[in-house]
Amino acid sequence: MPYCATIPQVTFHPYPTYSASPRSPVETTFYAPYDELAAIKVQLRRLLKQNSVARLPAGFPFQCVPDAYGCQSMSQASYDFHEYLHLPNRCSKSHYVTFKYIAPSARTGSEEMEWRVVVPDRQPLRNSNVPVIATIISQVKVDSRIMETSFGFQFMTNSRIIQEALALSLELGILITIQIANHKTEMMYPSRRGIYFSPGEIIFLATDNFGRSEVVFVYQP
Q1: Distance in angstroms (rounded) separating the CA atoms of residues 28 and 31
Q2: Can you tell me the distance from the alpha carbon of 63 to that of 101, in angstroms, rounded to the nearest whole number?
Q3: Which of 63, 133, 164, 198 has minimal Cβ neighbours within 10 Å of its Cβ?
Q4: C-beta separation of 176 from 137 below 8 A
Q5: Segment (H or E) for 165
Q6: CA distance 36 to 23
Q7: Taking Cα atoms as reference points, which of 1, 85, 95, 77 lies closest to residue 43?
Q8: What is the pLDDT of residue 34?
Q9: What domain of life is recorded for the organism (predicted)?
């Protein structure tokens, strides 16, 4: 029986289907048939939901690195790593996705922390200096000023928050932004999904290519 994998699609009428962040420099051509890309999304979403990403770094969503004394300390610098996937009932060839964390940058003036999952447009050639074009399949952003709030410690030490957001971005095919709800949130980002939340709760906003957002999920620790 042939393997079939699908990702539930959610349409934000009248908005177009998400392809990548409007400001993203990443190209959006995939090297494999759509059913293979869908299978990658399904498997990766399952791994994220089950907290089973094999190469997830210690300290995720950031990472622990050795300091000058050989002790582990938390680093909020940018990093990336590969996660290898084996698609069932397909072929022996493995595929990989790349997790990227992009730290806020004083040079660019960005105050956002950003996590991406990308897949290569083509398999890189050995000893090739040609850069590999990639497709964003999941993208999450968080304002770095959130680290200065009471939520900052929970966000830094609970990897499930970012994993849930990445999984939801995979499922909906759209950018997810994590915020803390306040008394203005419901007016600024009305939800058409019957989602209720209170000030102080962790909410996930889905944002289309035109910057229009709505609340699509309330994170429950």
Answers
A1: 10
A2: 10
A3: 198
A4: no
A5: helix 160-172
A6: 27
A7: 85
A8: 52
A9: Eukaryota
At 62-116, the pLDDT tens digits run: 999 988 888 899 999 999 999 999 877 655 567 889 999 999 988 878 889 999 9
d(CA 202, CA 178) in angstroms, rounded, equals 7
Strands of the chain, DSSP E: 63-66, 72-75, 79-85, 95-102, 112-120, 134-143, 175-180, 202-207, 213-219
pLDDT of 81 reads 96
Please report the pLDDT score of residue 107 as a whole number. Answer: 83
pLDDT at residue 17 is higher than 50: no
Contacts of 88 (CB under 8 A, 6+ apart): 3
Judge if the upstream peptide bond of residue 14 is cis by omega within 30 degrees of 0. yes
With respect to residue 95, please indicate whether it lies within any of the assigned structural domains.
Answer: yes
User: Is 3 inside any structural domain?
Assistant: no
Range of the domain at 194: 34-219
Query: Using an 8 Å Cβ cutoff, are 186 and 160 in contact?
Result: no
Alpha-carbon distance of 208 to 140, in angstroms, equals 13
Task: Give Rg (Cα) of the chain.
Answer: 18
What pLDDT score does 42 carry? 92
Residue-wise over 28-41: b if at least 16 C-beta within 10 A, else e?
eebbbeeebbebbb
CA–CA separation, 186 and 195 (whole Å)? 10
Residue 208 is assigned to a structural domain of this protein:
yes
Average pLDDT, the chain: 80
Domain count, the chain: 1
